[in-house]
Give the backbone structure.
Amino acid sequence: MVTMDDGTKKDIDLKVEELFARARPVGGHPARRRLVIGLVIAALLVASAVGGVALLGTSWPWSPDAQAEPPAPGRTLDPPERSSPETFSRSNAARFGGSLESLVQEAMERNGFVPVRHADWAADPGRYDGDLLLLDAPYTTIYGTRGRTEFLAVSPRLPGPTRIEAKWQQVSGSTDEKLPYLYLNAADFPEARVVIVIDGGGWRDGALAWLRRAAAAAPEGKTIRVMDLAGFLAWANRL
């Protein structure tokens, strides 16, 4: 229910009287006067719906310079919360990392690879052929525990099964400290070919240079390629 003070009611009464006065000369016909009044009142109600008139408790006519009601004595308004880069990194790392994985998968799909869960493929490999992108491919880590990589590409177009890892770091953090662990696992993968897609611009100075040097010195018979997203897209397009 709409409520109003005496001053507001008086203003509305004056406006209604003004509407009637303006409507009287309209052809002198009662029906036409009622039509004009109805249209104008309808317009006022529409204006009130968007906060433009006194029916909602503002002054008449509404002014865009009207000030918000100040806080009660002794109470202050809390400033809006701001996220630090570190907080932003923690809360968004999974989302942006997932986006990088999605871009990698989309690039492979655009080049004819069909995504299939590794577990489904392993249960019945004979059901699948052609260019496959196996998702959540398991492996045994250097600690002897069970791990998973995002993708394992299997295709006649490739020299052999190829593991694909995607790592994203947008702001400085501890992820680059895990690069040696990533490399040692990659060197120990059962597949001879590994692609590491690494992007985000937040890697510590020297971290990517170390990873590339390590990949270039991979054990005999192992090929590990390190590339950013643009390089990976170019690589996928050449398959």
Residues 1-78 form one domain.
